[in-house]
Write a structure and sequence with these properties.
Largest sheet: 6 strands, mixed
Radius of gyration: 43 Å
Distance between the termini: 93 Å
Number of helices: 15
Strand content: 5-15%
CATH class of the largest domain: Alpha Beta
Number of domains: 2
C-alpha cells in the first residue's frame, strides 16, 4: 500500500471497511448458504471457473480489457442466494486474485469491491422482485433486471475507475471511456444469461443445464471475438508496415534514379567537355577570322559557323538539363524521335572518340504519352552500356531502329559486342547486377522500372557471336496527337 498515493490508500481503506461491515452484517443470515450447501458450492466453483477463464480483448494499441462470464453467475446468485451470496463472491474474488499472484492491494480491493457491488445489486433485487414470482419475469421483472444489471455494472465501473484515477491522477471519465466503456455490451449479454439461468432454475432446476451450455458458448464466443480482434489488429499493423516500407522503397528508388542519372552524366562528362572545347575553339577561330577579314562574304560565313556551333551547344545544354532535372514523372505527348536526337547529342562525341559507328533507322511515329526526361535516361543508359561493351573493339557498331508494330512503338538498340553472360542475363534487371568492373548495377533496373511505368516492355537478346539487342515496346497513342514530326533519319553517322 505504500506505493499508492495517500488518497488512493484512504479510498482502499474505505472500500475494505465497507466490505468488512457487509460481511459482518450478513453473518446472521448466512444460514441460507448452509441450507443450500450444494447450490452454494456450485455457485462458488462456477464463479472461480468463470473468473479464471477470462478473455483479453485489445481495444487500443496500448489498452486491453478482460472479459469473463462471472457476472452471469453473480446475477444468478443474487436471485437464488440473496445478499448472503456476497460471501461467495468475496471468497471467489480473493481466490482468483491469489491464483494470479496479484499484489496485496489488488487482492484486497477486488474482493472488497465485488462484495460491495454484489450486495448493492442484491438489495435492489430484493426491493423490486415480487416474492414467489419467477425471477425477472413479466414487466416488473424486466424493470428489476435492468435495475440490478445497471447497479452491478455501474457500481463496478465507478469503483474501479475511481481507484485507477486516484492511483494514476487521470480523470475518472477518461478512464471509463478508454478502459471500461467498450465492455458494456458484453457485460449486458452475461447479465441477461444470468437472469435467464435464474428463471430456468426457478421453473425447473434441470433446465439450468441449458443455461450453463449458453454460458459456455458465450465464453467461447468471447474468445473467438478476441482472437479475431487480435488477428485484425495484426493485419492492420502489417498493412501499415507495408505502406511504410512501400513509401520508403519509393523514396529510395527515387534516390537511386537520381544517382543513376548523375552517374551516367559523369561517365560522359569528359566527352562533353572535349566537345565544348572544340566548339569554343571553332567560335573563337571564326570570330578572329571575321575581325581581320575585310570581305563581307567571309564575315557572313564566320557568323554562320558561329551560329550553328552555338545552336549545337544549346542543344547539348538542353539535353543535360533534361537528364539532370529532378522532378516527378510527367506524362505528356512527346516524340520518341526527340528523345533519340537529344540523347545522340550527348553520346555522339564519345562514340566518335572511341571510333564506334552509329547506324540509324528511325521512322516517323506519332507522339506517345511519356516522360521525355525518363525516356532520355533509358536511352542514355542503354547506349552508354553498348559503348562500354564495344570500347576497344574493331568494327564496333551500334544500331538504333525505331518503328511501329501492332499499335506499339518498337525501339531497338543493337551492338556487335561480346554479349551478356548467360548467368547474368536472367537477372540483368535486378538491382546491383552488373557486368562492369566499376558499375553500380542500377542502370538496367531503373530502365526496367521506367519502361514498366510507361505500360511498356523491355526485352534483351544476347549472343556472344552476334552481340546484344535490346527491344523496347511502348503503346502508341490511339488519339494521334497533332504534333509536328521531324523527317525520318536514316544512315550511318
Amino acid at each position: 500500500m505504500r506505493t499508492l498515493p495517500p488518497l488512493a490508500r484512504l479510498y482502499l481503506m474505505i472500500i475494505c471497511l465497507s466490505a468488512i461491515g457487509i460481511a459482518l452484517a450478513l453473518l446472521p443470515i448466512s444460514g441460507v448458504l448452509r441450507e443450500q450447501a450444494l447450490l452454494s458450492i456450485a455457485c462458488l466453483v462456477a464463479m472461480i471457473l468463470a473468473e479464471s477463464a477470462q478473455v483479453s480483448l485489445q481495444v487500443r494499441t496500448d489498452q486491453q480489457v478482460n472479459l469473463t462470464v462471472g457476472e452471469a453467475v453473480a446475477i444468478f446468485s443474487i436471485s437464488v442466494l440473496g445478499p448472503p451470496g456476497a460471501l461467495i463472491i468475496l471468497i471467489a474474488a480473493a481466490f482468483d486474485s491469489l491464483r494470479r499472484r496479484r499484489t496485496w492491494e489488488r487482492i484486497i480491493f477486488n474482493a472488497a469491491m465485488l462484495t460491495v457491488v454484489y450486495t448493492g445489486a442484491a438489495l435492489v433485487y430484493r426491493a423490486l422482485q415480487t416474492p414467489g414470482a419467477t425471477p425477472y419475469s413479466g414487466p416488473l421483472g424486466l424493470l428489476t433486471f435492468l435495475c440490478v444489471a445497471g447497479t452491478y455494472h455501474g457500481a463496478n465501473s465507478l469503483l474501479v475507475s475511481l481507484m485507477v484515477a486516484l492511483a494514476s491522477g487521470q480523470p475518472v471519465l477518461r478512464i471509463y471511456r478508454e478502459s471500461l466503456q467498450q465492455t458494456s455490451w458484453p457485460h449486458l449479454l452475461t447479465f441477461a444469461i444470468g437472469a435467464a439461468m435464474a428463471a430456468l432454475y426457478a421453473t425447473d432446476p434441470w433446465l439450468l443445464l441449458y443455461g450453463l451450455l449458453i454460458l459456455i458458448v458465450s465464453r467461447s464466443t468471447f474468445a473467438t471475438v478476441a482472437a479475431l480482434n487480435s488477428e485484425t489488429r495484426k493485419r492492420q499493423e502489417l498493412a501499415e508496415e507495408r505502406v511504410r516500407l512501400y513509401e520508403e522503397l519509393q523514396r529510395q528508388q527515387e534516390e537511386l534514379t537520381r544517382a543513376s542519372k548523375l552517374a551516367a552524366l559523369g561517365a560522359l562528362s569528359a566527352g562533353i567537355a572535349h566537345e565544348f572545347n572544340n566548339m569554343l575553339t571553332a567560335i573563337l577561330g571564326h570570330a578572329q577570322l571575321g575581325e581581320i577579314s575585310d570581305s563581307v562574304t567571309e564575315k557572313d560565313y564566320s557568323l554562320s559557323v558561329i551560329s550553328r556551333v552555338c545552336q549545337r551547344a544549346t542543344s547539348i545544354t538542353s539535353s543535360l538539363l533534361t537528364f539532370a532535372r529532378k522532378r516527378e514523372p510527367d506524362l505528356s505527348p512527346n516524340l520518341l524521335q526527340t528523345a533519340i536526337n537529344e540523347t545522340l547529342d550527348l553520346v555522339r562525341p564519345d562514340l566518335e572518340r572511341d571510333q564506334i559507328r552509329l547506324d540509324l533507322a528511325i521512322n516517323d511515329l506519332p507522339a506517345i504519352l511519356c516522360d521525355l526526361g525518363q525516356i532520355n535516361q533509358v536511352l542514355l543508359n542503354l547506349i552508354t552500356n553498348a559503348r562500354d561493351a564495344l570500347r576497344g573493339r574493331a568494327n564496333a557498331e551500334i544500331r538504333l531502329a525505331l518503328g511501329a508494330s501492332e499499335g506499339h512503338a518498337v525501339l531497338t538498340i543493337m551492338d556487335n559486342g561480346p554479349g551478356i553472360p548467360p548467368e547474368v542475363l536472367d537477372k540483368i534487371f535486378q538491382p546491383f547486377i552488373t557486368t562492369k568492373s566499376k558499375g553500380n548495377g542500377l542502370g538496367m533496373a531503373i530502365c526496367y522500372g521506367i519502361i514498366e511505368s510507361h505500360r511498356g516492355h523491355i526485352h534483351i537478346d544476347s549472343d556472344p557471336d552476334h552481340g546484344t539487342a535490346i527491344t523496347i515496346t511502348l503503346p502508341l497513342d490511339a488519339d494521334g496527337y497533332a504534333l509536328e514530326e521531324p523527317q525520318a533519319m536514316a544512315g550511318v553517322v
